[in-house]
Write a structure and sequence with these properties.
301 residues; alpha/beta; Rossmann fold; 9-stranded mixed β-sheet; 19% strand; binds S-adenosylmethionine
Length: 301
């Protein structure tokens, strides 16, 4: 397949290479027990579309991608977002993930719903299986902080991005995740009941035991987790010929409008970036797990 630089074994829509690295194996084993995010029994094209449209950033991203593009989602888990990006477009979407059990759910869903413009790759990011300069868009949200070396993972991914292509990276923030870390300690001491009061996402999932379990494990029991800052990602960008485009939270004091999210903004200064990330502790970004997102564009010239 042209998006792969190595020949992998194909089974349905999935191309597979065995995972050898011990920390990636540990993470894949962790998700095997409770694939993330979960599917509901009655999920179909419509419900996946609706879920995607509700996610403001993802729906703006899909709109911005347009048509006839090559899109990669890294750490796609059960592939719901990759499927959302593929449905109703002529883009070719590739979802890569280390957990075969998650990709099998994605593959079954795509087959059942006759979604053909999608493939999945079961491989470790660090095995560097993707073709150089291939994708127009890369989405990698909530993944690199669960790997042994987030920067090395990022560097490998940028190789498969075309010049002028866009990359979106979402990571746990050093300041923004403070509330989750405090909740983790309280949960250890007082048990699950108290989390139902303190974690608003968990509270909203109270009628769905499977989704609740999957969120609980992802947020509070993960075997590998690291914390990062916008400044760190800006450094990753400058080392890999990626220009800053925008971030959530914004790097300046300006309110971020999702409408123009892919239009280049100022990266502010050390002080404005610090305040913006510090603010996460008190806003919904901090209460939802402390993820921050940075978008960049490859510029090799
Ligand atoms: C928290 S889940 C995120 C799923 C999805 N991106 C989302 O936001 O719903 C992290 C995913 O990254 C995958 N992953 C972690 N380390 C990986 C690696 N080294 N190579 C490939 N996938 C990896 C896991 O298997 C898991 O499905």
């Amino acid at each position: 397949m042209s998006f792969l630089k190595k020949k992998l074994i194909q089974n349905g829509l999935i191309f597979k290479q065995s995972i050898k690295d011990s920390s990636t194996k540990k993470v894949a084993d962790f998700y095997k027990e409770s694939p993330f995010p979960n599917y509901k029994n009655d999920d179909n094209k419509d419900t996946i579309l609706k879920k995607g449209e509700k996610n403001f950033l993802a729906s703006r991203f899909k709109e911005f991608i347009g048509y006839k593009k090559k899109v990669l989602e890294v750490g796609c888990g059960t592939g719901q977002l990759s499927l959302y990006f593929a449905i109703g477009t002529n883009n070719h979407v590739v979802g890569l993930d280390a957990t075969i059990e998650s990709l099998e759910l994605a593959n079954d869903f795509a087959n059942k719903n006759q979604i053909e413009n999608i493939n999945f790759v079961n491989a470790d990011i660090f095995d560097d299986v993707l073709h150089k300069d291939y994708f127009d868009f890369i989405w990698c949200n909530g993944v690199l902080h669960h790997t042994k070396n987030p920067y090395d993972g990022f560097k490998i991914l940028t190789k498969s991005l075309k010049n002028q292509g866009y990359i979106l990276v979402g990571l746990y923030n050093r300041m923004g995740r403070v509330r989750t870390i405090i909740r983790k300690y309280i949960y250890k001491i007082f048990g699950i009941k108290i989390l139902n009061f303190l974690d608003s996402t968990l509270k909203n999932l109270k009628h769905d035991e499977k989704e609740k379990k999957s969120w609980l494990r992802d947020q509070y029991h993960h075997p590998i987790e690291s914390l990062h800052t916008i400044d760190e990602v800006l450094h990753w960008f400058s080392q890999n010929k990626i220009d800053f485009v925008n971030s959530i939270p914004s790097c300046t004091f300006e309110e971020n409008s999702y409408k123009n999210f892919f239009i280049k903004k100022s990266s502010g200064n050390i002080f404005s970036r610090f305040l913006s990330q510090f603010n996460m502790i008190f806003n919904n970004l901090g209460s939802d797990g402390g993820l921050f997102v940075v978008i960049g564009r490859k510029n090799e010239h």
